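User: Please fill in residues for this 444-position structure.
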């Protein structure tokens, strides 16, 4: 059935089999399907989206007072300590140690859990490059499991087949701020005696069965980089409930200085590095914490509304959430685009058309394991010396992830700030997608 010439009201009725959805939608803006903005028509939206990051005056005052005090490093102040306490409390974790960024939080977690030369770590291929860079940086082999295209998360049913006698850890990512399937991941880890480090660098306040992401595995890592929901510019944190392990995190990130249960051995120093957060960073973090709960609630509300609107549009497949998900962070709002419902117009054309309608979007991650970086790593001294050639050859043969490949072709992402507007702002997104659907014959 061709919906091209239907009014939007009739379209909704036709595609959902019910008229109920109409009651919740706005006045049609393109009842006669309009002309696509990409083809010179009027865009659905001309207004700007909420800016990011946003901050309040309390951050300015605090940063200036630290500047004037001359106490810029955590050893001379207590702002980092305050921020660590506040963030641990917010997440319901016993402890938090802040780091310079999320990458170094992950490197620290891997180090204190003794993941290193010759070990293998199971990771998701659908993630920011840092997730597997830190494994390579720890001289361990990042072994990819496949992605579940419906949830955008690591497919837990493909993890066990990747476990070898060298596997030491699973590094699940709550990618895009949607929780990974922690029940299955924790059960596999328990069965095979593996460590779990959660990459929650996009998942502040997301929850799995009421527990905050990052507090479920052995350690959880966060990023506070500029684009993040708790933005500091740069910044990161390791979260945990094991006091002794967190003492090791604190000591290691502070040049190996003794801390708590980490005692001086034969003399100073113990092995360590410097990944300390500055007092200024923590001051910005403290002010950003104040808005996180409210922003998270709004993102979830708008995301739910958006899903309810777009799920009826043929060829638009909203992300699914696992049963255990009790809250999302929505660092990105993802859905999938099926070109066969859009006159076979390639995804890039759809992305361009949606952007032209005033709804900026992107296609997200590509199949990064084919980008050359992995091959360089496999040929490096670290890997050729610590892994048998047969293992690395098998690894190359197994770089094949159908779920991930499909997702990389179909994904569409919207950024988190677009979920911080009103219902009518969110409605613009659904209207734009539907307008494109109705004009799909003019896309190709
Ligand atoms: C999933 C994921 N892991 C790790 C990182 C690394 O964090 P940072 O940029 O703070 O080093 C990021 C940052 O974007 C991320 O998105």
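Assistant: Residues filled in for all 444 positions:
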């Amino acid at each position: 059935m061709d919906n091209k010439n239907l009014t939007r009201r009739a379209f909704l009725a036709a595609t959902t089999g019910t008229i109920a959805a109409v009651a919740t939608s706005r006045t049609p803006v393109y009842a006669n399907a309009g002309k696509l903005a990409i083809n010179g028509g009027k865009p659905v939206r001309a207004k700007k989206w909420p800016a990011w990051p946003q901050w309040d005056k309390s951050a300015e005052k605090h940063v200036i007072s630290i500047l004037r005090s001359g106490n810029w490093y955590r050893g001379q102040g207590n702002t980092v300590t305050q921020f660590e306490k506040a963030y641990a409390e917010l997440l319901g974790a016993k402890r938090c140690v802040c780091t310079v960024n999320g990458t170094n939080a992950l490197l620290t977690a891997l180090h204190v859990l003794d993941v290193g030369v010759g070990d293998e770590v199971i990771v998701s291929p659908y993630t920011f490059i840092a997730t597997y860079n830190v494994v390579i940086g720890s001289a361990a082999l990042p072994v990819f499991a496949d992605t579940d295209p419906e949830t955008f998360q690591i497919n837990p049913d493909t993890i066990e087949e990747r476990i070898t006698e060298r596997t030491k850890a699973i590094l699940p990512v709550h990618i895009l701020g949607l929780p990974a399937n922690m029940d299955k991941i924790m059960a596999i880890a328990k069965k095979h005696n593996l460590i779990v480090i959660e990459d929650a660098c996009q998942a502040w306040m997301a929850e799995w069965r009421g527990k905050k992401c990052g507090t479920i595995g052995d350690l959880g890592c966060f990023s506070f980089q500029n684009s993040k929901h708790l933005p500091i510019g740069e910044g990161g944190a390791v979260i945990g409930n094991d006091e002794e392990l967190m003492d090791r995190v604190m000591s290691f990130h502070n040049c190996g200085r003794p801390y708590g249960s980490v005692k001086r051995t034969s003399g100073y120093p113990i092995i360590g590095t410097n990944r300390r957060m500055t007092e200024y960073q923590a001051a910005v973090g403290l002010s950003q914490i104040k808005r996180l709960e409210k922003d998270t609630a709004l993102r979830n509300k708008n995301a739910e509304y958006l899903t309810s609107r777009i799920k009826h549009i043929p060829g638009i497949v909203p992300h699914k959430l696992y049963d255990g998900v009790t809250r999302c962070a929505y660092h990105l709002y993802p859905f999938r685009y099926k070109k066969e419902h859009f006159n076979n117009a390639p995804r890039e054309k759809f992305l361009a058309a949606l952007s032209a309608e005033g709804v900026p979007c992107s296609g997200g991650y590509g199949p990064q394991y084919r980008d050359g970086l992995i091959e360089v790593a496999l040929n490096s001294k670290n890997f050729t010396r610590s892994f048998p050639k047969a293992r690395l050859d098998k690894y190359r043969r197994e770089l094949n992830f159908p779920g991930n490949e499909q997702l990389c072709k179909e994904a569409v992402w919207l950024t988190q700030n677009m979920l911080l507007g009103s219902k009518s702002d969110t409605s613009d997104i659904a209207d734009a997608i539907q307008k494109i659907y109705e004009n799909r014959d003019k896309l190709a």
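For context: The longest helix spans residues 279-310.
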